[in-house]
Design a protein that fits this description.
By secondary structure, the protein is α+β, with helices and mostly antiparallel strands. It contains 7 helices and 11 strands.
């Protein structure tokens, strides 16, 4: 198993139309570890490559445990084994579907479902953050300072100090990022152009039946290390 600069637990769609769309749209196939040609999408205000430049290196994913460096005394093989054992204890989550959503200045796919379904998804993420935290090295001061530039609430600051990332636990919001930051003019145009493209690949129901251990290479791009079936 190759060593990576950082690791993360992501949701990656199972191979199929949604995964294929995400890889092509972003231009990076995190599961195959290869660049992919962007699709031709009419009526976009700017080229796909510009719209997706920021999220491209991460691949099409939903963050469950944010990227982290390995703690001293741990290695990639031990992390993979611990992640597999954690996944065996966690149950799959079934939601109604996905929605194309504007989140502040970027566009993403977000889950649709009942309060109970969304609570189950949040619990899955919380268990993943806590269950593998022994493998996470403390975030460097430069990273903490960069996070604080967003203007964190008291709770977010507390989570940043405890878990190395401010948007976990009650602050967690599952999403699959599709763009970088967009202007107030570009955002509605991109959303309108994407809507007919994503409609045919949106799953109903949307089921999370596996998580994925991913690693960041020297160029900053993430790769699938191991897919982890939930519930064994």
């Amino acid at each position: 198993m190759p060593d990576y600069a950082r690791y993360a637990i992501y949701y990656l769609p199972e191979p199929g139309p949604l995964a294929d769309f995400g890889a092509a749209w972003l231009g990076w196939d995190v599961q195959g570890g290869a660049e992919v040609a962007h699709p031709q999408v009419p009526a976009l205000p700017r080229p796909v490559a510009e719209l997706t430049a920021t999220p491209r290196k991460y691949g099409f994913h939903g963050t469950v445990k944010p990227p982290f460096r390995l703690a001293e005394g741990h290695d990639a093989a031990g992390l993979a084994l611990a992640a597999e054992r954690l996944a065996e204890r966690l149950e799959p989550v079934v939601l109604d579907g996905l929605a194309l959503t504007r989140l502040g200045s970027f566009i993403a796919l977000t889950p649709r479902g009942s309060r109970a379904q969304l609570t189950a998804l949040a619990a899955l993420a919380s268990e993943s953050v806590q269950g593998l935290d022994a493998y996470r090295a403390p975030a460097p001061q430069s990273e903490l300072d960069r996070r604080r530039k967003a203007g964190l609430s008291a709770r977010q600051e507390s989570y940043l100090q405890q878990w190395g990332y401010p948007y976990v636990m009650e602050e967690f919001r599952f999403h699959l990022t599709l763009t970088g930051k967009l202007s107030a003019i570009d955002a509605p145009a991109v959303e309108a152009a994407l809507r007919p493209v994503v409609a045919p690949v949106m799953p109903e129901p949307f089921t999370i039946e596996s998580l994925c251990l991913c690693g960041e290479d020297e160029a900053g791009r993430f790769h699938l290390v191991k897919r982890l079936a939930l519930g064994g």
